[in-house]
Amino acid sequence: MVIAITLAGACLLGLGFVAQQHAAYREPLEEILHPRLLLRLIRMPLWLGGIGLMFCGQILGAIALGQADVSVVTPLLATNLLFALTAAHVIYKEQFGRLLQLGAVLVSGGVALFLIAGQPHGGDHPSPTSPQWLAAVPAIILAAGLVAFGMRRSLKIKAMSLAAAAGVLYGFQDVLTRSSLLTLEDGLNVFATWQLYMVPCVAVVGLLLNQSAFDAAPLQISLPATTAAEPISGIVLGVAISSERLRVDPVGLAGVVAGLIAMVAGIAILGRSPFLAKPPEGSLQRPDGGDRRGGDVP
C-alpha cells in the first residue's frame, strides 16, 4: 500500500513539474530567485494547476511518510521523472527510443535494488531539542553553496545548481514531515514543535529554487538534478537524523550503492530526452517579439 501511494504521489509530482515548467519558462530571466517570480506565476492557471498536482502528490507522499521511513519513500518519489517524461511524450506524440527505455529500466531497477538490498528500517523521530537535528546544517549549507555557485555560471549550470539545491531541501522537508507526523501519532502536541513550522518554510524556499531552475532552462536540464538530489538527501538525513538503518554487510552495502548509482544514471539518461528539452511554443518570445534570453540559450 505504501508503494502504491508513493508511486501515485510521484505521478502527480511529475505531471505537476511539467505544467510548472511550461509556465515558468516564459518568465523573464531577471525574475530568477526573486520572490516576484512566484507572484507572477500565481496568476497563471497552468502554473496553479501544476502546483495543485504537486501539492496532491506531496500529500500522498506525506501519507506514505507516515507509514514508512524516508529511506523507503524518497527513492520511490524519484520515479516522478518517469511520469514527467511520459506526460511530455504524450504532449509531443513521439516514440520512446531504446536509450530512454534503458533509462527507465535503470531508474525503476535501481530503486527496487536499493529497497531490496538496503532493507531500510527502524526509523524514529528525535525530540525537537535533539542534537541529531544538527545533521541538517551541512545540507542547508550545501544548498546555499549550490545556489551561490550557480548564480555565477551559465544558464545551464545555474539551472542544474538551483534544481539540485531544491532537491537537497526537499529531502530535508521529507524528514521534517515524517517527524511531524510521528509526533502527531504519538499523541503529542505537534503545534509546540519547531519542525511543523519549518516544513512550509523549507517548502517555499525549495519551490522558489525549483521555479527559478524551470525559468532558466527546460526540464531536460532542470528536473533531473532535483530528482536525483532529493532521494540522496532524504536517505542521508533519514539515517543521520531519524536513526533509520540500512544493511551494512558487504552484500547489502554493495546492493545499496549499485542501486543508487543505477537510479542516478537512469535519471541522467532520461534527462537527455528530447521530449523534456522542448520549450512551450512561443516561450522564448517576449511580448515585443524579441528573444527573452538573447544568445544564452542552453
TrEMBL record:
Q: Where is this region: Disordered?
A: 279-298
Give start-end positions of Basic and acidic residues composition bias.
288-298
Q: Which residues form a coiled coil?
A: none
**InterPro entries, per database record:** EmrE-like
SUPFAM superfamilies with a match to the protein in the record: Multidrug resistance efflux transporter EmrE (SSF103481)
Q: What are the alphabetically sorted keywords of the record?
A: Membrane, Transmembrane, Transmembrane helix
Enumerate the transmembrane spans. Answer: 46-66, 72-92, 99-118, 130-150, 188-209, 221-241, 253-271
Q: Which NCBIfam families match?
A: DMT_1 (NF038012)
Q: What is this protein called?
A: Uncharacterized protein
Q: Which organism is it from?
A: Nonomuraea phyllanthi
